[in-house]
Amino acid sequence: MAKEKQSESNVLREPAERSYAAELAAIEKADKHGKPTGWRLSPRAVELYILGGEAGGVTITPKYMGAPRLVQIAIATLATDRALLLLGEPGTAKSWLSEHLCAAITGDSQLLVQGTAGTTEEQVRYSWNYALLLAEGPSQRALVPSPVYRAMENGRIVRFEEITRTPSEVQDALITVLSEKVLSVPELGLHVQARRGFNVIGTANTRDRGVNEMSSALKRRFNIVVLPVPADLETEVAIVEKRVREIGHTLELPSAPPSKEAVRRVVQVFQELRQGKTLDGKQKLKSPTGVLSTAEAISVLGNAMSLAGHFGSGKIADRDIAASVLGAVVKEDSKDEAVFVEYLEGVVKKRGAEWAEFYKACKELV
Amino acid sequence: MATSKRAAKPAESPAKSPEKSPAKKPSAGPLTISSGPLGRIFGVRHLSPMGALQLERFIDEVEPTAIVIEGPSDADAMIPLLAHKKSKPPLAILSFTQARPVRSILYPLAAYSPEWMAITKGLQRKSVVRFMDLPAEAFLAESAAKDDEDEDAASDEPRTDTEAYLDDPYTAIARVTGEPDHDTWWERHFEHNAEPEAYREAIHEFGAQLRAVRRDSGKRERETLTREAYMRRVLREVIREGHSPDKIVVVCGAYHAPVLTAEEHAMTDAELAKLPRSPCTHTIMPYSYPRLSAQSGYGAGNNAPAYYQVLFDQRRAGRPQHAGYRILSAIAGRLRARGNIRSSAEVIEASRLAHALAAMNEGSHAPALRDLLDGALTCLTHGDQALLDQCAREVVVGDEIGAVAPGVARTSIQDDFYRLVKDLRLDEYLKDKRQPVKGRAKDGKVEALDLREDRRAATAASALRDRNVSIFLHRLCALGVAFAKLEYSGSDVDLDADAADAAAPRRWSRRQSTFKESWSAQWTPDCEIALVECALRGDTVEIAAIRALQEKLAQATTVGDAAQLALVAMQCELQDAMNAAVERVRELGVDDGSFASIAAAVRRLSDLTSYGSVRKVDLAPLEPLVAQLFLRATLLLPTSVRGDDAAARAVGEAMGDLQWGALTSAFAEKSEGAAVFDEAMVERWWRALDGVADDDGAHGFCAGVANALLLERAKVTDEALDRRVALRISPGLDPNAVGNYFEGLSSRNRMALLSRKVLWRSMTEFVEQLEHEDFKRSVVGLRRAFGAFETGEARRVAEILTEIWGGGSEVAAAITGAVESKVDAAELAALNDDLEGLDDLDL
Question: Which ipTM did the prediction report?
Fold first, then answer.
């Protein structure tokens, strides 16, 4: 294991099953509950892996924070033969959660179809090695299976990212796969029947719903779980802090991770603007039109770290944060600037000394 | 409010059980008993379907001669009324003190309450059915004493039993088992286990442990012990009457069950005599599912009455698994009724998911409500929580209302009403004939109420009698009880005719003086009915009025509506409701992007300040709100001034309102030094006005008003003003725009304009260069602007023009004549049509 780690240390990002291999092994060892056919872990053990805890003396880090019940629903869904669709605003850890679910359930999170406007039906079903096809005619050898095909054959879970970005006719190729659990190759007179354990996790963006709305026939075959934006400050601070530290580490940024106060401040600004009210609930605010996701809070701080590291003192100051925050808030519509000013004047200014620097830094920009 | 909190009392702790096996203990004898339980004790959680069903079986098995229930023992007379053929649960026994202040306790019962089962079953079997808890008389007297004693201590001790019930051990159990709340834990472990005896035994374990860890404050503990001693006394009485303890079924909250034994001390006669008492009236009132559920703000219920009813019905019909199907189908039905297509296949999937979720919990027998709702969320509403909440509320909470057999006593709000009528000496108006309400003040020939304190009055009550009458009548209006009607208030009447109807929007004038009100009153049967309907809102006129205002607030959609409700709340002197209304103004203000409506709200809120001295209402909460709205209006201003004529006119007028409301009203005066508006904020406003005045794209009228407002506060230099006027009123511009600008500019503080020659010179130049057609077009606008001038001001204009034009007195006279002739709107319209005829106008 140590060897493997060394040899791959240059990889920018490892798949979940490899970066958390030790945790998965420990859980598997301690797992005493019944496993559905084709599953590497029992549903409860999967839950433990995602939500964190302790197994056989090994600490399991939480992979997803904030909505344990949704994780339960997602796992319970996968344990039936229903497909799972994770919906949410951009940056709500949909892909992150789907990757970890696959890693825990089947030990393979790499069967992936990335949905784009250019995704074709072949990428969902199968395509051909045309040289062979011309030379030999249709044959097993000439057939290039898609990730869906391979998942069915092996009883694995396939991830379909950004499902609503693909044209509807491509989406509909999934319908038979999901209801009949069969993929037919008429050229070979072949019917690939899904083995137990096969399932699909789709993700879709709520902001993109209008791009290619899923047909109700397809929608009906999914259980839909909507991932929320973190509702409370502590959860989001924990998420942001963890991820910012990880990013700073992988990107080798020459700056100390932001202080707890800095993280808290950014997250608080994001939450208050997103929810349209102050944290104490005493004052209602106007929300900007753009999305203010947790992922953006993470990138704001990452950016600030980079700024401070390369051009500043190496310690994150409020000026480093202010510019990125403003950029994140005022993104699509100039009216958002008025929203931000109102927030600055109406809320931040009154917060006293702790926020004074931040207020001043922002004030210079607007 | 305290009274309604007491209502939570009976629903207190859940079950727990008595001794290990009461059934096998032999009784000591027919008359007395020296050891063991004082009956066959059945611990329950109030409002528990499985408890009711198991109790039913238990009663059949024991065949009791007496059934004794935890309930106020002085309300025994209510038992037959409850079981009356025409009564239909949910019902509540309501006990309230005969003296003021009224305190009350509610004992709510649903069809699936074990207590309800005990009553109906017992009467059916012709057993003796009695209540055994402390009499409500003693309870209310004690709680009154307690409240007087330590208002402070009350805050660190849980306010209601329900809160206590949800406190430590309960949430701790839920946490340990991974459930979100106690209700779900309870449902999972108690409501679905139909094994005979399982309920009693499980509840016994639960209860015994609970009693061991329970850490109540001394006061609450003492109260509980007193109640339990009393219960034992009643049980001993029942035994003495000849019932064998083996044939007495005792239904009580689980917490009390272990101690209802012969070994424990029963209350003696002397102790009984020492109990404080305050005489009570008992009645039965219809209860409703929404009120039973926690959502109604009362702790005495469970959160899903309709769901529990379905559980109860289906299990009784022998098909418990149907409960979940029914709930999911009902939710799908609601979704379909709202226009969403949902297939049966989706209901099936939801049900499968609910079962899968239940299976992830140890000890699950069937999906709990939470599993069903999560299944519905995922498969039926596709993750849309808001949609589910709308549909599920109807299905799991329901809207059923109980019915009371005719002939049962008055509701407490009626009692409160009649008591107030008597106290305020309004008895003479209880006639079906409209008569004016007499007060201290004379206003012409009409008598009116004088809201100020009468310093010559002998007693405090009579000094404020008029004001109290006014508050009382305003509250009735807010409740929709059409007893009295506000004819007018103050000397400047500016109310719609039907001002007494609080729901109807009132027009309000800031000139209104606020210490005189004239009312008329008439009592009709409709009033009585309306009053009874208010019973569900609260037990007193005050509480019901608060609730009524809350309901209206929830429906208010505009800042104006909410500000109006703030005013009503102020007239009713309900500080909390007013604060809530102000809060609502704040919320609506955020989403309201219209400059005009925000400005109107600022204006209306500042109008409230004119009440300050007469009404005892604290205006402090308004200050930050007004400041916030002011800031937001300021930010909205630059983009709001570019609309068409109609919009610009509204915005221009609103600008004036805003400045008045924010900077001239009592807020501004009061806040000097107190920083309601800090300097930066006001500065921002001046800058915004400056921006508008300089903005070429801004509508002429708004730009004019902006200048006028700046001029009014001397915030514009002469040079700047001259430059702007020259720019806006100069030859070659669109005559309409110039007319609008001039109108805006002259809308305020015209005296300041009169001294500015540059204005009039610009006007002259502009008018002189106009082509004939353009001139005709501009005349209308200019006449309208001048129409608003006072005669004296018009004369000054004439003088100035004479000076500029250099004519003699003849010219002066002609101009004066022309300027002084007033025109009204109708004439202006006619003028517009008759433009041809203007050729001979000698200007």
Answer: 0.75
